[in-house]
Amino acid sequence: MDPLRRSPSPCSSRPSSPRTPPCEMLGYVGIEAVLDQLKIKAMKMGFEFNIMVVGQSGLGKSTMVNTLFKSKIWNCTPLDLGQGPVPQTLQLHSVTHVIEEKGVKLKLTVTDTPGFGDQINNDKCWDPILGYINGQYEQYLQEEILITRQRHIPDTRVHCCVYFVPPTGHCLRPLDIEFLQRLCRTVNVVPVIARADSLTIEERENFRQRIQHNLKTHCIDVYPQKCFDEDINDRILNSKIRVGGRGGQGG
Ligand SMILES: Nc1nc2c(ncn2[C@@H]2O[C@H](COP(=O)(O)OP(=O)(O)OP(=O)(O)O)[C@@H](O)[C@H]2O)c(=O)[nH]1
């Protein structure tokens, strides 16, 4: 499944194609080999996955990424920050690693957005983040429409944005709502309750339900969106995610 929303979207209305009846085969052709060929090609090329983490400082973004991929993904001293004090303005930075498991390579890029929502005036604090996401779409599109385009276009588009909700135990803050409304129009958003272990199980469950209610009231369509429900298996899995909705990242 390609989680990108800008890739040909299943949400877009398209005419239902008439079913093509299967052709009766009179002997062995070797179509099954296509599967192996595709597998070998995919193994050689590897996969690209770009994840963005958004949230205030200290909510456990780096910890979650490292835990998720069981690696030290996060580089503690990002190269682009240089020497001296960290500037007050919002800084986005990405780290890329190739991780390999059983011969399958994954080029993982994690983009961090330190200090989001930390300022006194958070007006338009989402602009650099949305600008970055849209910039990656634009870059990919420009490569794609070239007459002599590369055989493999490096994919820097953000496939998933993990949004860290502070564990207030109340509901989404106006800042979260404002930002999520914009974010979910652009990218797949996965909200998580940060440092969920600081809440009791009951508090966490109530908080999760209130967040889900807020999301619904404010028309915030997080992942998995309805448009990913085309296939029956996907639909079952997506329903489980929606109902069960993992309440938080835990400790
Ligand atoms: N209790 C608890 N502590 C956590 C959790 N995740 C991370 N921490 C701790 O919180 C502190 C900050 O974690 P980081 O992962 O550096 O947080 P961050 O969001 O990446 O912070 P910045 O790099 O400043 O943006 C560390 O001391 C972690 O050990 C969690 O789920 N529960």
TrEMBL record:
<keyword id="KW-0963">Cytoplasm</keyword>
<feature type="region of interest" description="Disordered">
    <location>
        <begin position="1"/>
        <end position="20"/>
    </location>
</feature>
<keyword id="KW-0547">Nucleotide-binding</keyword>
<protein>
    <recommendedName>
        <fullName>Septin-type G domain-containing protein</fullName>
    </recommendedName>
</protein>
<dbReference type="InterPro" id="IPR016491">
    <property type="entry name" value="Septin"/>
</dbReference>
<dbReference type="InterPro" id="IPR027417">
    <property type="entry name" value="P-loop_NTPase"/>
</dbReference>
<dbReference type="Pfam" id="PF00735">
    <property type="entry name" value="Septin"/>
</dbReference>
<keyword id="KW-0342">GTP-binding</keyword>
<feature type="compositionally biased region" description="Low complexity">
    <location>
        <begin position="1"/>
        <end position="17"/>
    </location>
</feature>
<feature type="domain" description="Septin-type G">
    <location>
        <begin position="45"/>
        <end position="251"/>
    </location>
</feature>
<dbReference type="InterPro" id="IPR030379">
    <property type="entry name" value="G_SEPTIN_dom"/>
</dbReference>
<dbReference type="GO" id="GO:0005856">
    <property type="term" value="C:cytoskeleton"/>
</dbReference>
<keyword id="KW-0206">Cytoskeleton</keyword>
<dbReference type="GO" id="GO:0005525">
    <property type="term" value="F:GTP binding"/>
</dbReference>
